[in-house]
Amino acid sequence: MDKEIFKKNFETIRFNMPTEIVSALVSVLSSIAYVECLKPVSEKVRQEALELFAPKVEDGECGEILGRVGSTILVWDDLFLASTTEAKKIYDYHKLKMAELGYVTENKHTCPFLVAESLKRESIEVLFGLMSKYTGVLSKDLLLSDMRGKYLELLLKLLVPAALAQNIELDILKR
User: Fold this and answer.
1) Residue-by-residue pLDDT tens, the chain, 175 positions
2) Distance in angstroms (rounded) separating the CA atoms of residues 113 and 156
3) What is the DSSP string of 75-101?
4) Residues in contact with 124: Cβ distance below 8 Å, sequence separation at least 6, in sequence order
5) Domain ranges of the chain
């Protein structure tokens, strides 16, 4: 879509933002805020768990390929290299500590931080879908996370000022 068509399509939103776009925008902003609030708490508990349990890279194909069998896992995202039993203890510890801090989900077997991230992704997907008729950009055109991030940033830079100019409340606690 060229810039002139985009500008023409966006004029509709700039002066009269549809309710479904407002709802999606509020959802995205709220989910981003929640993830950002939860992230440092989750990261602290994760680091605590890694230090407490000091998981080791399991003697298996991945550990052998990496040449790290028996070495201590220092990064949370590398826990897949630990044994299933060891990783489960650490994940259970994380869920327990998060629950003690007041972060729980409806399903006691799920991680509150991962649920928050999932809801964020889902709300962004809804916004992308609603905006596609104005921008011509389809979600399937945004496969790489950096592209999705740049597109989201662009949408927020366009939509938030437009909403504020229309006196639309974006704070979920004040709606």
Assistant:
1) 567 777 777 888 888 999 999 999 999 999 999 999 999 999 999 999 999 999 999 988 888 888 889 999 999 999 999 999 999 999 999 999 999 999 988 887 888 999 999 999 999 999 999 999 898 888 888 888 889 999 999 999 999 999 999 999 998 888 7
2) 23
3) SGGGGGGS-HHHHHHHHHHHHHHHHHT
4) 28, 31, 148, 152
5) 25-165
